[in-house]
Design a protein that fits this description.
mainly alpha; globular
């Protein structure tokens, strides 16, 4: 069941990269869903599973821009490993702590990808794309955790 869930998340990342990214764009700013999924998997799965999921998601996310596919896979694996070890070393029981890990991962991914693509005006690109992408992804991740927490609290209330 665990591998089927990871496969569905990988399909969701591929679906978002190929079809939904244009629908969720707001003035060129989009949700960085593959990075969010990699970090969520790293926060809930074992190290090997999260690293393999990070690699597969990096290949899927890199398929959109083929010259950067290897870099995408490498960055996703490093983010998965970093998030997993942060989970192991820190107390991440709070949804806010997990949200901060996701926000940091999205910001690091956006900045590193800007440096890899190497546009002429890197500082402007960070200001124009990395920070708004991180903010947009943070809003989406916080909505996910609010819905998850409210669904969990509803089950607790019904069980008493």
């Amino acid at each position: 069941m665990k591998y089927f869930q990871a496969f569905l998340l990988l399909v969701l990342a591929a679906f978002h990269e190929s079809i939904l990214r244009g629908a969720t764009d707001i003035l060129g700013v989009s949700i960085d869903l593959p990075v969010m999924l990699v970090i969520v998997v790293a926060l809930h799965y074992s190290e090997i599973e999260s690293l393999w999921f990070g690699f597969a998601t990096g290949v899927v996310a890199g398929a959109v821009l083929l010259p950067s596919m290897g870099w995408q896979a490498l960055i996703m694996v490093l983010l998965a490993g970093g998030a997993f070890h942060a989970r192991e070393r820190l107390n991440l029981d709070s949804p806010l702590a997990r949200l901060m890990i996701i926000i940091g991962g999205v910001l690091v991914h956006s900045i590193v990808m800007i440096f890899i693509v190497q546009p002429a005006d890197i500082v402007y690109q960070i200001w124009r794309f990395a920070l708004p992408n991180t903010l947009y992804s943070a809003v989406a991740a916080s909505a996910y955790y609010i819905l998850r927490q409210s669904a969990g609290s509803g089950r607790k209330l019904r069980s008493t």
